[in-house]
Design brief:
By secondary structure, the protein is α/β, with parallel strands linked by helices. The protein has helices at 14-23, 48-59, 61-75, 82-88, 103-110, 128-131, 154-160, 195-219, 240-248; strands at 2-8, 30-37, 93-94, 116-120, 138-142, 150-151, 165-172, 182-189, 234-235.
Length: 254
């Protein structure tokens, strides 16, 4: 199975997890290329200056300093680079300009003859021609118990609303937002983890779930879990008030 990964060069969490995925790929599966989108940890592509201002304004000084230092250190460490990880595994990085759905970019992607697209932190809306460019379509990792907590930053929102459990869902992408049928879903206890610890934990489970999905798709034997619209909740970027509620619950960012 020829797999094409759609992701971003996130300096915090993705490189380690993608390295795990590449080392554990099922027999017969091969990653033939990777599209790296511009980094947008909060889901919206903005300038570095705008990202810094938003982070400071919403999450406060200590959060800003903590992740600012982590960002600088991560950029200096090749183990935190998704791009360098792909080069380590001799996987081509596919250079695209503009929207991934443009006819020119679709032609480039189709030239790799993918059987399956795997989105991990993909931050563009995928249109039907892109989804149809791979034999088995596209799967996406979302660290929430879909259909609940669609949208941005699910690890923040489950803690902001004081949930005891969250989830990891890998689903077939459609043209909606986190709305496609679910292939694998795991329920995860939050416990006393910080948000950072929860992200790391669910990302690891997410990689294991992607591997399970690839095995299911290769075998052709699987049952889909409904991602019911009538049960869904959706959240976007938090406000200062949401951050205050998060902290009032006794939750920690790190």
């Amino acid at each position: 199975m020829r797999i094409l990964i759609l992701t971003q060069d996130d300096p915090f969490f993705l490189a380690k997890n993608i390295r795990f995925l590449l080392n554990k790929l099922p027999k017969g599966a091969e990653v033939v290329g990777t599209v790296l989108f511009d980094v947008s940890p909060f889901g919206k592509r903005e300038s570095l200056k705008d990202k810094m201002k938003k982070t400071y304004d919403i999450f406060g000084f200590s959060f800003f300093v903590y992740y600012g230092i982590k960002y600088v250190l991560a950029k200096l460490n090749p183990l935190h680079s998704v791009a360098k990880t792909m080069k380590e595994f001799n996987i081509p990085i596919i250079q695209l300009e503009g929207n991934v759905n443009s006819p020119k970019n679709l032609e480039i992607i189709q030239s790799y003859k993918p059987d399956l697209l795997v989105s991990i932190g993909g931050n563009q809306i995928f249109r039907r021609p892109l989804l149809d460019s791979a034999t088995h379509g596209c799967i996406n990792l979302h660290t929430a118990p879909l259909p609940k907590y669609r949208g941005l930053m699910p690890s923040f929102w489950v803690m902001r609303f004081n949930e005891t459990h969250t989830g990891v869902s890998v689903f077939f992408v459609d043209e909606g937002i986190d709305s496609g049928p679910i292939l694998v879903q795991k329920i995860v206890e939050i416990g006393d983890r910080s948000q950072e610890e929860l992200i790391k934990y669910t990302k690891q489970i997410g990689m294991e779930s992607i591997i399970e999905c690839i095995e299911k798709i290769q075998s052709g034997q699987y049952e889909l879990i409904p991602n019911n619209e009538e049960e869904m909740t959706y959240y976007s970027f938090p406000t200062k008030e949401d951050v205050r509620a998060f902290k009032a619950n006794g939750k920690r960012f790190y």
